[in-house]
Amino acid sequence: MKILTAAQIAEGDRITIERQGITSEELMERAGTLIFKQIHNRLQGAQIPVKIFCGIGNNGGDGLVVARHLVQHGYTVEVYVVNYTDKRSDDFLNNYEKFKETTKDWPQLIKEEDGIPEIDQGDFVIDAIFGIGLNRKIKGWMCKLIERINKSGAFVLAIDMPSGLFPDKISQSDAIVHADYTLSFQNPKLSFFLPDTMDYVGEFQVLDIAIDRQYLAEVKSETFLVGKEQAKILYKPRKPNSHKGDYGNILVAGGSYGKMGSVLLTATAAMHTGTGLCTLYIPESGYTIIQTGLPEAMVITDKNAKILSDFPKNFKADTVCFGPGAGTAEETVHSLENFLKKQKTPMLIDADGLNILSQHKGLQDLLPENSILTPHPGELKRLLGKWKDDIEKLKLAKEFSKKYKVIIVIKGTHTMIINRDEIYINTSGNPGMATAGSGDVLSGVITSLLGQKYDPPVAAVLGVYLHGLCGDIIAADEGFEGLTAGMIAQNMGSAFKALFENQEIA
Ligand SMILES: NC(=O)C1=CN([C@@H]2O[C@H](COP(=O)(O)OP(=O)(O)OC[C@H]3O[C@@H](n4cnc5c(N)ncnc54)[C@H](O)[C@@H]3O)[C@@H](O)[C@H]2O)[C@@H](O)CC1
Ligand SMILES: Nc1ncnc2c1ncn2[C@@H]1O[C@H](COP(=O)(O)OP(=O)(O)O)[C@@H](O)[C@H]1O
Ligand SMILES: [K+]
User: Fold this and answer.
1) Known binding site: residues?
2) Which residues bind K(+) (predicted)?
């Protein structure tokens, strides 16, 4: 699914109105009615005090539609218009009149701090102050209103977006509604997925308001959401008439004394992702650990007992994963440099491999084209330098991706795959995966797909999705706390199976 900018969403509304031969008020009625139905489904007529705060634009208009339906269905509703200016939108005004006609009552106007009502913990607050039209930071008494909403402890439902949040930039103000739930129209917004802003959104659901399908199909976006539907079509079925040589001969290089488990996890994950042949290149002291832990894999040992210092001269792999547990010793820098010089096909660099690249920037020029880097935020900061906010982080990552012709997988709650100007936002995974070694497993999954000749951007996008999906499948049985990286590595097969099953896990 595409992530659209505020301007593209507004254009979608305009085209929909034109092509469907409806008025903008009818589109607003459609949007507001869908929100009402969701609320009505949840509340089932319960007499919870509902307080709706409406701005004076179309987000406020949506709020008034919801308010009218709630009143008509017998809910206890207080409607407030956050009247910071009298320049109200036409569709707001139409619904303002309609509300009065239907309910025989005007909403209450808030024009200053004194007019802000008390909000109790037991209230159900609907935030319809600002949506995608926010174009500057919120000032004055409206900050006090937002502060009161946030401090109230009431359940807060945001319409389209929490007020104060921009769809695709970061607010420098803390006057942002902290929603428990957001019901958004048609396409989710970028800020729903960024670490800086996602907590304001709470849980969210996207409602289909039937924006023109042709417009949605044709509109150009460089930011995409990856769910099961998108991941499924990337999968390449295995052929009956095939042998292990068809599924990649990969090399996993890394490990150091005390950190041999990392490469074991990586290689185990690769084997369970369908790799034909897997060889590990590890310090000599890891030999027994790996041969016992993963009998399917072959092992070549470095001459150094505790760290990598060299590279396997007479070994040719389809792709290489370098870095898990490797450390950053001078000898290991030399080892990575040799791999980079020798490997002509895209490879994957993770963990200490990335730290070495950050400390020895000259090595970045040696990265084979379309290699994949898989940093967590700490590793990314070392690689790119500091950023002001998540939007600048994405800009820096795109610049790095273009300069070095590589793909960057920024790991996190919503892992983002950066391929030049494109961003793919992953939707699978859960907090149970915030556990030691789950990143090592991801490296094994993506390297395996690279070895199976998936195009590097596809290997990254599909690998990240499957890794998260596997985590979700395990968490469904074991809970978040019970989930370990080893379980993900061992159970990757279940993620492939779930790609083609109907039940909704992620
Ligand atoms: N056609 C329709 O009727 C539809 C309406 N929708 C709703 O329309 C919303 C967008 O409506 P609008 O474009 O009217 O914008 P908003 O209702 O989000 O904002 C209203 C106006 O406030 C002003 N403003 C922006 N930032 C401000 C600030 N910090 N302080 C004071 N004033 C500020 C701007 O002039 C803006 O146009 C969406 O979020 C959604 O809720 C659509 O999503 C669905 C279709
Ligand atoms: N809250 C979360 N929700 C979804 N996925 C998560 C969450 N926390 C961590 N992950 C995933 O787990 C992995 C953690 O990787 P990383 O930080 O490198 O761990 P390690 O270094 O221990 O291997 C990443 O793929 C990340 O996206
Ligand atoms: K809102």
Assistant:
1) 58-62, 127, 131-137, 160, 163, 325, 376, 411-415, 439-440
2) 59, 127, 163
